[in-house]
TrEMBL record:
InterPro entries: UPF0311
Protein name in UniProt: DUF3237 family protein
Comp. bias (Basic and acidic residues): 98-109
Domain of life of the native organism: Bacteria
PANTHER family: UPF0311 PROTEIN BLR7842 (PTHR37315:SF1)
Region span, Disordered: 98-119
Organism expressing this protein natively: Noviherbaspirillum galbum
Length: 160
């Protein structure tokens, strides 16, 4: 392992809780094997987003395009919009990985989660209008999630 260099790495990023997303999703539409990978498309039906004390409603019409690897790991890119009323509309893109805990995960630093559940992490990119939500354009955000039935829950953290 390479030791941190004070000259090039002055501090370790901190994760600051920024909100939560609850996404209602349809059953997957299986697309079959495309370009050597099993693909599926999941329609986004609605839900809610809470960031910085503001609550918005996820608009129907977004999608989650997934690639299912041979080992069962899912690489995903979800794109959808939320309406925050007077604060405007927000575009959300979440790119990430989801996989169930597998044999051998305990020996890998990136394996599983502290509670032994599935690994479901992502990087979020927001496109926000001027005004109260504009600050979302200027930071990096990561998510930790879980899927329960037809709902995906994402805890959002700002990388500071």
């Amino acid at each position: 392992m390479i030791a941190p260099n004070e000259a090039t790495s002055p501090f370790v990023p901190v994760l600051k809780p920024a909100g939560r997303i609850e996404v209602k999703v349809a059953p997957p539409m299986m697309l079959g094997e495309l370009a050597g990978t099993e693909r599926r498309l999941i329609s986004i039906l609605g839900g809610s987003v809470e960031v910085a004390g503001r609550v918005g409603q996820i608009l129907p019409g977004g999608s989650d395009l997934q690639e299912v690897r041979a080992d069962g790991t899912i690489s995903l890119t979800a794109r959808y919009a939320a309406d925050f009323g007077d604060a405007g509309k927000l575009l959300i893109e979440n790119t990430g990985l989801r996989r169930e805990k597998r044999a051998g995960d305990d020996s890998r630093p990136e394996g599983g989660t502290p509670d032994g559940g599935p690994y479901f992490r992502g990087v979020l990119h927001f496109s926000a209008p001027p005004g109260a939500l504009h600050w979302l354009n200027d930071s990096i955000f990561v998510s930790s999630g879980v899927r329960e039935g037809g709902t995906v829950y994402l805890d959002i953290h700002q990388v500071c």
